[in-house]
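Sample entry (264 residues):
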Amino acid sequence: MVASNCEGPLHLFDFLKAPFLAIQEFFILAGAALRNVFRRPHYSSDIIFQMDQIGVGSIPIVIMIGFFSGAVMALQMARALQQYGQVGKTGQVVAITLVRELGPVLTALLVTGRNSSGIASELGSMKVTEQIDAMRALGTDPIQKLVTPRMIATAVVLPLLTIIADFCGVFGGYLIATFRLNLEGSQYWTSVWQSLEWNDLTQGLLKPFVFSFAVSLVGCYYGLRTTGGTQGVGRATTTAVVVASVWIFILTFFVTQIFVSQTE
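Predicted structure, serialized as tokens:
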């Protein structure tokens, strides 16, 4: 009777076991992938291939989204600034918003939708067809072969994609400012140049570097734990995109908080 009474409260927390176990497994995977960066073999050809898949393949959509984000922002901000007679500050607002926040977050979300899903589905298919088990049987570490190259490639290309998105966004704002708002081009670019500080550039490049680990490792984690055949691959793909997207917003809050605290 005493044993049953003791077990009763414990059963109330059974629903917490799965989330805590998942977090533990994720950090074990992340730790192993980071350790493999300093261990041989490095699989350089796999890293270059993943950089091409993740980086070069994402350039067209990053350019398009960056350009129209800057254009829309210029239209919206000019409307608000016009009430105070500060339309000339449009370039400043567009540049700061894109470089600090919108550029890194939008780029990371696009790469998540395109590549986290791809990583999860690719590794999930290998998992359900027992290719990963065969890899272990042959003496190859699946984490070093499959996870670490994707993590390194994403960490390299995501900041570069963010730079492209920021430039295209600022250029989109320039076209709106000159042809729609009748601002001088030199006035717009001078406003952009004078508004950006090293703190903004550091923040704008640190965020995508931090995001890259969430994008790559979350996709790899859900791909490697796929079960249930082709339906399991679909579930893993969907879950990877959702979880990585949520982590991007959580991480941008904490990184922003760090930089805001330093400037106070």
